[in-house]
Amino acid sequence: MFDHAATLPLAFWLLAVIATLLFGMSKAGFGGAAGSLGVPLMALAVPAPFAAAVMLPILLAIDLIGLVVFRGKADTANLRIILPGAMLGVALGWLTFSHVDARWIKLLIGIEAIAFALDRFRAARNAAIAVPSAPTFLPGILWSGVAGFTSFISHAGGPPIMQYLMPQNMDKMRLVGTTVIFFTAVNFAKLGPYAQLGLVDLSNLAVSLLLAPAIPIGYFAGYRLLQAVDMRGFNLVTAWTLLAAGTKLVFDGLAG
Fold first, then answer.
1. Which residues does the chain have with pLDDT short of 70?
2. Any residues with CB less than 8 A from the CB of 27 and at least 6 apart, and which?
3. For the stretch 216-240, what's the b/e string if a residue is b when 16 or more beta carbons lie within 10 angstroms of its beta carbon?
């Protein structure tokens, strides 16, 4: 099992460590959608399916850490809306997986993420204090459903759910706590369907285990940075990472 890990090029290990740190930092709330750049980074050195298989156990481990770190900080009113919406999206992704071109999904979500990031930059320039707003049912079902679907099809669920949550201007810890529970539920809900579709590959678990020490480093570095920045800084960092992730998704969609 570890013999296979020894044959991987040095470039893979360097990129994989960076990707694991990015996933950890973004899951801890600092960097928002930056985690979506992790698998594409690794895919510069190895095939994308291999990169995704290696990262799946790492993502699940990070989700479990998040449940402990952010326990009690999630917005339950939002979760009552977005968790059912996400499950509908995951189910739709499962049913249509063989018929949907992931390139077009990436392109559309990338364009949406770029437009939303630019709008967040505009909002950040506004000197007025942002007023929190309440969850809304139909937009919540819509965007969480899109997030569940795009997460299943192309691992790009971050931009859609942020489009719903960020305009509510909730406290940064509550926002991150809500996304932690949301994506933990989505990622674990995908396991069964992925296994049925033949997308779960645990033969590379040894590679994931070798990368595991980078998980707490990235996670707690991200958590400390999250605590250090003010709300405006948090929104700007999130907008920049949404812009980067959106640009990458557009590139992937056009490159095919």
1. 1-6, 31-36, 124-130, 256
2. 35, 59, 62, 63, 65, 66, 180, 183, 219, 222
3. eebbeebbebbeeeeeeebbebbbb
N-to-C CA span, the chain:
32
Q: Residue 236 has which token pair?
A: 């700007």
Give the pLDDT score at 145: 97
Helix (H, G, I), strand (E, B) or coil at 122: helix
Residue with tokens 């997030």: 147
Q: Residue 256 corresponds to which tokens in the numbers above? A: 């095919």
Helix (H, G, I), strand (E, B) or coil at 136: coil
Give the Cα-Cα-Cα angle 205, 210, 212 (nearest 5 degrees): 90
What pTM was computed for the model?
0.83
Angle at CA of residue 148, ends 147 and 149, nearest 5°: 90
DSSP 130: P
So what's the pLDDT on residue 1? 45
Number of Cα atoms under 13 Å in the Cβ half of residue 89:
31
Q: Which of 87, 108, 90, 31 is nearest to 62 (CA)?
A: 31
pLDDT of residue 2: 47
Alpha helix locations (H) across the chain? 2-6, 10-27, 38-42, 48-69, 76-96, 102-124, 137-154, 158-165, 172-196, 205-211, 214-228, 231-255
**Tens digits of residue pLDDT in 119-175:** 878 776 664 556 788 999 999 999 999 999 988 887 778 888 988 998 898 999 999
